[in-house]
Structure formats: structure tokens, C-alpha cells
2-phospho-L-lactate transferase
Amino acid sequence: MRITVLAGGVGGARFVRGLRHLVAITDLDAEIVVVGNTGDDAWVSGVRVTPDLDSLLYALAGVNDEGRGWGREGDSERVSDELRAYGVGWPWFTLGDLDLGTCLARTALLRDGLPLSAVVERLAARWPLGVTLLPATDQEVETWVHVVEDGRDRELHFEEWWVRTRAALPATAFVQRGVERAVPAPGVVEAIAEADVVLLAPSNPVVSIGTILGIPGIRQALAATAAPVVGLSPIIRGTALRGMANACLTTIGVAVDAAAVARHYGARAHGGLLDGWLVDEADADGVPGLETGGIRARAVPLRMTDDAATAAMARAALELVR
Amino acid sequence: MRITVLAGGVGGARFVRGLRHLVAITDLDAEIVVVGNTGDDAWVSGVRVTPDLDSLLYALAGVNDEGRGWGREGDSERVSDELRAYGVGWPWFTLGDLDLGTCLARTALLRDGLPLSAVVERLAARWPLGVTLLPATDQEVETWVHVVEDGRDRELHFEEWWVRTRAALPATAFVQRGVERAVPAPGVVEAIAEADVVLLAPSNPVVSIGTILGIPGIRQALAATAAPVVGLSPIIRGTALRGMANACLTTIGVAVDAAAVARHYGARAHGGLLDGWLVDEADADGVPGLETGGIRARAVPLRMTDDAATAAMARAALELVR
């Protein structure tokens, strides 16, 4: 069975780990391909950071900092402390030393001329991840955020908006810079076309899944695949459990509501993306409306408290379209 | 009194520290300007390293690793270990974490558009160095080394030749890439022109002092200054105490000998650079010949075993032309 997952960072990583756990405990003969968001990627002082891909890598390798939610377990900040001591620093951005090691390894390979997908393959080879990790695209397509700050229109890199302002500065739009020149990374379209099922992880619908869908060719591949497409709601009881998806949804005019996100993705039967959609039990009242609208829906526990709970979610997603 | 020193890395740093010590213990009213070699500078995986300037900075700040001879005291290699774990690494190059902090701070400032001299000023402001540190030039003028490796002509960056091959691969030439477009950094020509004395530290005559002299305008400034120019031999008893100057001198056809190095710089009276030259007591037999050739010379202990010994060397250099 071939399972392809579109995923953002921390939430996506947790979901994929649960899916991998499901495969392990059920002896399912499954190949998992994860298409990771690259819209958060940034050049910081000449170093290429790819936050979502690294969150996926670290979580799948089991070296992530579970408590903090990002970065490497047991990391230190010797290099960052030095930057601050020089009064240079990354004022709104901190990279641990181990994390920086990943970033410098990636930067070295990119500067050697490797495309991002080849770099991800090289870095991922360090650990037995049990999944194939692909960036959505090899091109640099970074998400920039239109804001009004101190009375003036500005554009911030998504990472700055997210980390420095904690997404509190109202955004008026998200722009994928350079997206018109982008193509899906090698293997992405194939992974969607040849899948037995495609899952949209419970990631940010705007700046994670939405960004992946914005790469020309990916939405088309989803529309064309014979595989059913099932999403899991990142919104429970009208709020995002992780990250700050609330602000992102508000910006694009979508209600912060599990069913509203499904309608935003749209029913495949009516030109949208979804065959199925899972909402949390707390949002069960939205299920009949979704089904009427052509999206098979079910309410199940959607809190990814541990791998077992997350595996149950993944199982529910697979069963929804079986 | 204005003292301007042309200096390479570790040896230059040790000498300047001794000179600073002399100023402190004698209550000399002196301003010290150090012009540091930039020929070892390199881009490594998108990070700008400036080994000689950093050796000067760390030694003058008192944070250098005295035992190892380079880098920061108490440094760790968490980032480098990560690079190796990914199979990327800098195979012939290791940067400690604290050292990398300096490099990333510099890289950030350079990428913000600051010239190297402004970057050095910013970084140096962290500590009360007691001297003004200037790069020889703001332009990227890197030293490349012609070698024959595995039977083929190659050019290596100086750092690779120095660190990877330990200067053991015979060099046929040193080339300063881009030197024709370089100008002295702001303050360098002034520091030479307005000095009361100019000292050539006991640094590598080829790839440290020689590289500084190769920047168009610096040799001319030395020829034109009213200040006497005094050098200290980095060669004692026919060998270099630090670094691998032997191989460099051999490459350019200069004997590895204290007096030969002075003749290589040349007597100012005959179109060269030197008014005075200090050799070690072990090389006293070369003194009469140098004096005949127009270079005031004296034999004194030239081993920089500690700040007091080095201060005595600096004092002898100043006294030679008083």
C-alpha cells in the first residue's frame, strides 16, 4: 500500500510518526512518502533554514525536542550566545548548535549545487526514518506576509512574522514569492499519482498544506490521482491545537472551524480536493453538512497525544475511504 | 607615539600582545594599529572565515586557545560533529562552536553589506583590545596555491593547502586572486603614513606579510612614510618557529634564513622596505652583512615564550631605530 502525506512541520511530523507507528503495529505492507512544506524556508545570514523539513526529519529520527516542540533534543546554544555577545544575533530567531549543524550541512550541499530534494535525501540517510521525505519543490518559494506595522504596509518573511510577532501582527495576505517558476520536486507528482491513498496531515491549511498546494502541478496531481484524498482537521472546537492557524485562516477569510476548513479544500466531487475529512468528536455536528456537500466525514478523537492516539487517527483516515 | 604593525595570525597576535604589554608596563603613550593579513580568508559552506584576523582578535581579547595555538579557549565541536554525522563535514577543516559564532556574526554583517573593516570594528568592540585592528583590505583577495597533486597541476585555496596538506604538498607559486582590484582598507595607508614607527611582526614573510604587501598601495605607503620600518625575523636558526614558512620561502626562492628574509624585504636605502631588522641571537653572524647592505640589524632573543619576552623583543625593535 502506498500512502502519500502532505505535511507541515511539527503537527505534520507528529502525524507521520503516528502513521508510521500504525504501519509497524499492524504489519501493514505500506510505503509512506511525505511531501513537506518548504514555504517557511529562509536564508538567515547565509545559512539555509528549512524549519518544516527539519521538524519532520528530527521527529521521524526520534531526535526532536518533544517538550519544546521544535529543534533537537539536548541542544545547546553556544553559537547563538556568541552571536548575541557580538551584538549581531538573529534577534527573533534562535538556532541550537545541533540544529545549526543540520543547517550548515544543508547549506554546504546546496552551495555544492545539489537540489534541495537531493540534500534532504542525503541528510535523511543518517537515520532509518521508515518513510521517504520529499520537499514540495526544489525551487526557493518562500512565503511572505503582508502586514501593517507602525502604520506602514510591509512584507515580512513568514518566519519573521511567525517567530518574531507570534503571528499577532494582523496579516492581510500571504504571498509565495517565486511560485510561478516552481515545479514539484522529483517524485512528488509520482507519489501522488501512484498512491493508494493521499492524506492531508492536520497541518496549517494556509501556510503549510496551502503552500504545498500552491506549487504549480501539485493541486492538479491531486485532482488527477485515482487515490482517495483524505484530510484531518487541524482545528478542534474552533481553534488550532498547534501553531497559529487561527490567524492564517482569518487572513484568507476562512472560519476557524473544522468543517469550514474542509469546505475551503473543497469536495473532490465538486472540483475540490477532498474525498474524506476527519473532524474531532467535539466537532461532530459538522459531519452531516460535509457529507451533504460530497465529503465523506467522520468524527474521531483528533488529539495527537502520543503515537498510539495518532496511529488511531491515521487508521480512521485510511478506513474512511476503504 | 603611533606604532603600526603588519601582522599575520598566531605569530602576529603573540607579537602584538607583547607590544601591548610593553606599552602597559612602560607607561608608554602609544597607539597601536595592527594591519592584519586577509589572504587566508575563505568562504566555507557560505560562511566567511578570516583565520588571521580571528587569531589576532582572540589573542588580544585573551580568549584564544593558547595550548592548541588557534581558535577559542574552551571551545567545543558540537556543530562540526553534526556535519560529520551527516557525512558532509568540512573534511580538512574544523571550526569550534565559539569560533563558528564569530564566523556567523561576520557573515551576517557582510551579507548586510558592511565592508570587512566595519565588520572587524564591530566584532572587536566586544572586548577592550587596546589596539586598533584593521584588515589589510576590504576586498576579497584570497591566496591560492599552485601545486602538483597526483601528477596534475592544481590550484588549492591557501587554507586547504595549509590545513589539509600541512603545506607538505610542494607549492610552485602563490597567487593573490583579485589583487588587481584591491585597495587598502580605510585607515591602513593613514596608519602607515602617520606612524612614528612601523613594525613587521615575525609572521610568515610570504603568505602573511607578503600578502599584505601585495595589496596595491601598501608597499608604496611603506616606501613613502617618514616612519622607520623595522622587521623581526620569523626564522631562527634556519627554521620557522611557528607555521610552515619554510615551504613558503622555498617556493618563492628565498633561503630559510633570518638574513635572507631581510634581504628579501630589502633595504629601504636601496628601494626595499626595511630600516631595521632583528634576528635571534643564534643568527648573530648575519648581522654584519645586513648592516653592510644598509639594514640596521641587531641580534636579540626572538622566542615569544611569554608576554614579557615578547615585550622585550618589541622594545628592542623600537630601540633599534630610536
